[in-house]
Each structure stands twice: as C-alpha cells, then as structure tokens.
Design brief:
The strands form 2 sheets. Strands 2, 4, 5, 6, 9, 10 and 11 form a 7-stranded mixed sheet that branches. A 4-stranded antiparallel sheet has the order 1-3-8-7, with no helix packed on it. 0% of the residues lie in helices and 51% in strands. The radius of gyration is 13 Å and the shape is globular. The protein has 124 residues and is mostly beta strands. The chain is built from no helices and 11 strands.
Length: 124
C-alpha cells in the first residue's frame, strides 16, 4: 500500500503562486511515475502534470505549460507542483497520484494510488 498526502493548497490572488507537496509513504517511492490531477466543481478530473521515476521526463497539460513545474525529491519521498501565474480557472482540488508499473502517462486510470486532495482557490 501507498499513502499519499497533499499539502500546500490555499487561497491566492490571480497572478500569485503556490507550491503543492505530496508526501508518499509505504511502498517504494523512487521507482514510480508521479502525477498531479485536478478537479473543479461540476467538471471531470483532468491531468495537470507528471514526472518519471528519476525526474528525467515530464508531461504537462497545455493549459499549465510555462506556468507550472513538477519535480520530485526521491530522498524525501516527495513530489512537488510549483504553480506560478495562477488564474481563476486553475481553482480546483488538486490530487497527487502514483503509478508503479508502466511509463509516464496523462491517463488517470493508469495510476494506482491517489491522495485525498488539496484545495486551491484563486481569486480574481
């Protein structure tokens, strides 16, 4: 089993920044793909960013490219999402996810474990 705990969400003004963290415990962290997804009220969960096991490969949704950066620290069993230039449309619950078999992917159904989420609110 793997436990994922997100933190760092909150209220920020448009144009501001937040850094989300996802701490993993349980099964080995360093060998897996990690991803961030988000879900706004009334909308489906959508892919935000993903990083390969060694941080060498990353993927981003077009809507966040150039503004968000995903990174990981395997020594700390933690993955981060640095969010700059936040927009009201970025407001959502952000979820961390782990995938233990297979390559980096944007497909939510291919991730094996999920955190409980952290709320990001962006005021205009």
């Amino acid at each position: 089993q793997v436990q994922l705990v997100e933190s760092g969400g909150g209220l920020v003004q448009a144009g501001g920044s937040l850094r989300l963290s996802c701490a993993a415990s349980g099964r080995t962290f360093s060998g897996n793909t990690m991803g961030w997804f988000r879900q706004a009220p009334g909308k489906e969960r959508e892919f935000v960013a993903a990083v390969s096991w060694n941080g060498g490969d990353t993927l981003y949704a077009d809507s966040v490219k150039g503004r968000f950066t995903i990174s990981r620290d395997n020594a700390k069993n933690t993955v981060y999402l640095q969010m700059n230039g936040l927009k009201p449309e970025d407001a959502a619950v952000y979820y961390c996810a782990a995938r233990f078999l297979g390559s980096i992917t944007v497909v939510a159904g291919r991730y094996d474990y999920w955190g409980q989420g952290t709320q990001v609110t962006v005021s205009s």
